[in-house]
């Protein structure tokens, strides 16, 4: 008698196939999940590398700022009004610098968030960082640390003090890069294109800057914005007395350098920096990092830390100091309500 074969009904075949697929799934699920995990794993960026890149970006942007001014090709426009109601200038220097700085960083680290003051629709610049690290950074920063790329926000100001740039008040002009990690400023670069002076700092690792030896707070010399020096005068005199010296100046980057001990003789000296209206974070983040690295402080007028991971603007005013009791300064300030300000 011929052996009997096993015959499966269509339902049996379907069940058998499903069981087979289940076995295959269990065999390969671990492999698949590992591949997915590897693909989606967090990228990291070395902060020393990012500091060197930030310096290079600020310098490259600065070259464009200087070239456009020297060739007198500003092509000046108005892009709107500031929160204080002043005309907000835009020049070819702003745009050229933005392209150099933004794409140099973005082409090198395409997965990092980069916020710039300017935007344009031109083709992508082709520049990529050559990974050269300046000798002074190599000397001061050993190795650096790696941080997750998704914790980083980079703020760039391609041309700080555009109004002064158009007026040929070039000592106030800077290009700036700041790197914030989880909202805290850790890298600050402020470059002065017309003198070639560059200040940099990596919080916890070092800086090429230092504080001055003495600061006066009884009363201090307070540096403020040229655009609304009159508005802040009463606020400052109520805090420190009517003998307080108020120093109007252009550019937030310049004002921070005025608190430090730069080798650039073009920079005036101040003891405290105060701003009482809305200010963008690309204006202040680099200076905040520099001051923090050197033991100083930049806070709101209420003494609160400024977060650099969210909205582009700070509405809570600004107080910056170094080598003095910052909270004592906060306590001297008159009551201030941000809802009354721009």
From TrEMBL:
<dbReference type="GO" id="GO:0046872">
    <property type="term" value="F:metal ion binding"/>
</dbReference>
<feature type="compositionally biased region" description="Basic and acidic residues">
    <location>
        <begin position="70"/>
        <end position="87"/>
    </location>
</feature>
<feature type="binding site">
    <location>
        <position position="159"/>
    </location>
    <ligand>
        <name>Mg(2+)</name>
    </ligand>
</feature>
<dbReference type="InterPro" id="IPR000760">
    <property type="entry name" value="Inositol_monophosphatase-like"/>
</dbReference>
<dbReference type="GO" id="GO:0052834">
    <property type="term" value="F:inositol monophosphate phosphatase activity"/>
</dbReference>
<feature type="binding site">
    <location>
        <position position="157"/>
    </location>
    <ligand>
        <name>Mg(2+)</name>
    </ligand>
</feature>
<keyword id="KW-1133">Transmembrane helix</keyword>
<dbReference type="GO" id="GO:0046854">
    <property type="term" value="P:phosphatidylinositol phosphate biosynthetic process"/>
</dbReference>
<keyword id="KW-0812">Transmembrane</keyword>
<keyword id="KW-0472">Membrane</keyword>
<dbReference type="Pfam" id="PF00459">
    <property type="entry name" value="Inositol_P"/>
</dbReference>
<protein>
    <recommendedName>
        <fullName>inositol-phosphate phosphatase</fullName>
        <ecNumber>3.1.3.25</ecNumber>
    </recommendedName>
</protein>
<feature type="binding site">
    <location>
        <position position="117"/>
    </location>
    <ligand>
        <name>Mg(2+)</name>
    </ligand>
</feature>
<feature type="binding site">
    <location>
        <position position="160"/>
    </location>
    <ligand>
        <name>Mg(2+)</name>
    </ligand>
</feature>
<feature type="binding site">
    <location>
        <position position="283"/>
    </location>
    <ligand>
        <name>Mg(2+)</name>
    </ligand>
</feature>
<comment type="similarity">
    <text>Belongs to the inositol monophosphatase superfamily.</text>
</comment>
<keyword id="KW-0460">Magnesium</keyword>
<keyword id="KW-0378">Hydrolase</keyword>
<dbReference type="InterPro" id="IPR050725">
    <property type="entry name" value="CysQ/Inositol_MonoPase"/>
</dbReference>
<feature type="region of interest" description="Disordered">
    <location>
        <begin position="70"/>
        <end position="91"/>
    </location>
</feature>
<dbReference type="GO" id="GO:0016020">
    <property type="term" value="C:membrane"/>
</dbReference>
<keyword id="KW-0479">Metal-binding</keyword>
<comment type="pathway">
    <text>Polyol metabolism; myo-inositol biosynthesis; myo-inositol from D-glucose 6-phosphate: step 2/2.</text>
</comment>
<dbReference type="InterPro" id="IPR020550">
    <property type="entry name" value="Inositol_monophosphatase_CS"/>
</dbReference>
<dbReference type="GO" id="GO:0008254">
    <property type="term" value="F:3'-nucleotidase activity"/>
</dbReference>
<dbReference type="GO" id="GO:0005794">
    <property type="term" value="C:Golgi apparatus"/>
</dbReference>
């Amino acid at each position: 008698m011929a052996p009997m074969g096993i015959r499966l009904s269509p339902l049996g075949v379907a069940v058998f196939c499903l069981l087979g697929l289940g076995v295959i799934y269990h065999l390969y699920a671990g492999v698949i999940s590992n591949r997915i995990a590897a693909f989606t794993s967090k990228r990291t960026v070395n902060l020393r590398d990012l500091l060197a890149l930030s310096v290079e970006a600020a310098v490259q942007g600065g070259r464009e700022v200087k070239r456009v001014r020297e060739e007198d090709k500003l092509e000046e426009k108005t892009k709107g009004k500031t929160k204080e109601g002043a005309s907000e200038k835009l020049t070819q220097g702003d745009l050229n610098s933005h392209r150099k700085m933004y794409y140099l960083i973005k082409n090198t680290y395409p997965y990092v968030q980069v916020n710039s003051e300017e935007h344009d629709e031109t083709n992508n610049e082709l520049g990529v960082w050559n990974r050269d690290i300046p000798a002074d950074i190599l000397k001061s920063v050993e190795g650096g640390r790696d941080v997750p790329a998704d914790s980083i926000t980079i703020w760039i100001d391609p041309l700080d003090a555009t109004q002064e740039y158009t007026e040929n008040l070039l000592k106030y002009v800077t290009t700036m890069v700041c790197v914030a990690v989880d909202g805290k400023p850790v890298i600050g670069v402020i470059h002065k294109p017309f003198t070639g002076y560059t200040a940099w700092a990596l919080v916890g690792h070092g800086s090429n800057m230092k504080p001055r030896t003495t600061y006066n707070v009884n009363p201090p010399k307070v540096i403020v914005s040229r655009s609304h020096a009159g508005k802040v005068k009463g606020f400052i005199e109520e805090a420190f007395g009517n003998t307080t010296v108020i120093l109007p100046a252009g550019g937030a980057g310049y004002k921070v350098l005025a608190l430090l001990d730069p080798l650039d003789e073009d920079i005036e000296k101040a003891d405290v920096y105060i701003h009482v209206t809305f200010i963008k974070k690309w204006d202040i983040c680099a200076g905040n990092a520099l001051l923090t690295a050197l033991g100083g402080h930049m806070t709101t007028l209420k003494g609160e830390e400024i977060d650099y991971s969210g909205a582009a603007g700070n509405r809570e005013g600004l107080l910056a100091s170094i080598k003095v009791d910052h909270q004592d300064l906060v306590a001297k300030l008159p009551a201030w309500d941000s809802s009354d300000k721009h």
